[in-house]
Design a protein that fits this description.
alpha/beta; Purple Acid Phosphatase, chain A, domain 2; five-stranded mixed beta sheet; globular
C-alpha cells in the first residue's frame, strides 16, 4: 500500500444555516483537494448532511461544490464509501449511480494491509439511548420511508429540515471525555473484542475526536466533526492517527 485511506464524519452540511454551511463546505473542499493526491480510499462515516432525503426524481438542493469535488475524485479512481448516519439515513442510490460510491447502511468490516477495521457511524450502538433506537427503526423502515416519499417535496423537505435542525441526537453525542467506562462506543467496541479481534474501531456520531487504547492491540478512534474540530483519521498502511485541518484558523 503506497497511498493513504482517509476517514471523516459529521460535516452536517446545511446546519445551522446557509452562510455557516457554505463556509464549512469550502473548508471541506479545500481539505479534499489537499488529500486527493495521496488518497486511495475515502470513508465518509455518516452525518455528511444535516438532512438528506431522496425522492425518485428530487434531491436536496445545495452542496454542489462538495458533490462536484467528490465526483472529480471518484472519476480519478479514488474509492468513496458513504455511511448512513442518523441525519442522512435516507440516502439511497443517487450517489452510487452518479459517482460509483458504496453506500453502507450499518457496520462494515474491512482489512487493509493486514489490519482489520470495524467501521460504523456509531448511532444506535452500545448501552442506553433506547428512545433513539426505537426512532431509528421507524425512520429506517421501508414502509415509513415510502409513506414520507408520498408527501410533496416542497412540504416534506421543509418538515424534515425543521426536525433535523432541532434534533441534537441526544446528549450523548457531544461533550467532553469523562472515562472509558462512560464512552458507550468504547464499551461497545470492548464487547465486540470478546469474540472477534479488530485492530481499529472507527466511528463518528460522537462529535468529539477521540483515541482510546482498548488493549490487546486494538484501538477505538472517533473521527470527531467539522463544526468545531475539522478532525479526521488517516491510515498510512502502518498506523492510524487523528489529524486536524486548518487547526486554529
Amino acid at each position: 500500500m503506497n497511498k493513504n485511506i482517509y476517514f471523516a464524519s459529521d460535516f452536517h452540511l446545511g446546519s445551522p444555516g446557509f452562510a455557516e454551511s457554505r463556509k464549512r463546505e469550502d473548508r471541506i473542499v479545500r481539505w479534499l483537494s489537499t488529500i486527493e493526491p495521496d488518497c486511495a480510499e475515502l470513508f465518509l462515516m455518516g452525518d455528511v448532511f444535516d438532512f438528506w432525503f431522496e425522492y425518485r426524481t428530487v434531491i436536496p438542493k445545495g452542496f454542489i461544490r462538495f458533490q462536484g469535488k467528490l465526483a472529480a475524485m471518484a472519476d480519478s479512481g479514488i474509492k468513496i464509501w458513504f455511511f448512513k448516519g442518523n441525519h442522512d439515513m435516507w440516502v439511497k442510490d443517487y450517489f452510487s449511480r452518479e459517482m460509483g460510491m458504496e453506500i453502507v447502511s450499518d457496520e462494515l468490516v474491512i482489512e487493509r494491509n493486514g489490519k482489520k477495521f470495524f467501521l460504523h457511524h456509531g448511532d444506535g450502538l452500545g448501552p442506553g439511548d433506547g428512545k433513539y433506537k426505537i426512532l431509528r427503526k421507524i425512520f429506517r423502515n421501508p414502509l415509513c420511508q415510502w409513506l414520507f416519499s408520498m408527501v410533496p417535496p416542497v412540504i416534506g423537505m421543509g418538515i424534515a429540515n425543521r426536525w433535523s435542525h432541532s434534533s441534537k441526537a441526544g446528549s450523548k453525542t457531544e461533550g467532553v471525555f469523562e472515562s472509558v467506562e462512560k464512552e458507550w462506543l468504547a464499551v461497545y467496541a470492548k464487547e465486540q473484542l470478546s469474540s472477534v479481534h479488530y485492530d481499529y474501531f472507527i466511528f463518528g456520531h460522537r462529535h468529539l475526536p477521540l483515541e482510546i487504547d482498548l488493549g490487546k492491540g486494538s484501538r477505538y478512534v472517533n473521527t470527531g466533526e467539522w463544526l468545531k474540530y475539522n478532525s479526521y483519521a488517516v491510515f498510512d498502511g502502518t498506523d492510524l492517527r487523528l489529524e486536524y485541518f486548518e487547526k486554529g484558523q
